[in-house]
User: Fold Ribose ABC transporter substrate-binding protein from Mesorhizobium jarvisii.
Amino acid sequence: MTRRMTLLMLGALAASTAMFTSASAQDTYKPGCYAPAPNSASVISYPKKAGPYKIALVNGYVGNDWRANSIQTAKAWGARPEIKSKLSELKIVSVGNDSTAQISAIDNFIAAGYDAVIINAVNPTAFDAVVRRAKQAGVVLVTYDNVLDSDQVVQINEDQVELGRIKAQAVVDGIKAKKGNVSGQVLEIDGVPGNSVDRDNQAGFSEVFSKYPELKVVKVEGDWDVGTASKVTSDAIATNGNFDGIVVQEGSVGALEAMAAAKHPVVPVGFDAGNGTRMLVNKGKYPGITAAQAPALAAMALEASVVLLEGNALPQKVFLPIPQKNNADLAEGKDFFPDLPKTFYTATGFPQCFPVFTPDELKGQTAENAN
Assistant:
């Protein structure tokens, strides 16, 4: 191989892969929307590519209301006329809680010539090799929700540690307001082990609760699932008696239903922001907060992939605002909707980025795989 051919091949490879710089957030696309995380020092961009684009979203499992709502927002995003004109194909698959299956699906989309692949990762650490393969092929990768522990791809998320802090602090403040001190026992209902969201939410909970030596924390796994959260709450109450506060990553309706069945007294809570959660919290007058990991992160990640394909730069790690509301301030028709299912998620978008999804947009979509 001649030196000239080698240089040409290296040049072609460089033109097809991501570029990493230390530019400031003001040099990136829509910084008021895609705000960099405090520890995000780099910016990622790709060479501009002509559309329309083939984009795939590879989800893990879809076994709870949040994941179902997430897929619905992805489909609703793709159905908007201003987006539809930019896409030749939008493929959405859920592969279950198996990292090998997820990596295989990503590889298949890379081999099939997709322009971008969006990932809600089964675990944060198993994807280095497929990230390299995507980079070599010039395929844009974006992760959201359960992101990768990688600085080579754009991450679209909320601050998961802060989300845990917010919920835990609301419970601590409520206990102190009621008892004059922070003591007793708190029930912590965590998510699916091995995921970055579960890990980071737990870190936020621990950061707050560990400050109070007279506070006992009972930790159980709720798998972000209403039915599982109900069972572990019932079991925890039966084993430990009443709690002075409860935090739940996701699946709070199950915890509330179990508390009602056990005639558990009203205590401060840090819960998710599902429609059913907010209806029950408002009805029962539970103090505390409902704060959301918004399912619309899926749509934001898809939007980010188009932004990158169009040649714009984004911070490597993006933190979107955490939708949250003090329970005392919840308003019917604005923060929760009695005429909609409990499974509907109230945080339907990020208005600083694009118009939030309406209930009608989301109800017209399913959580099934999409071709």
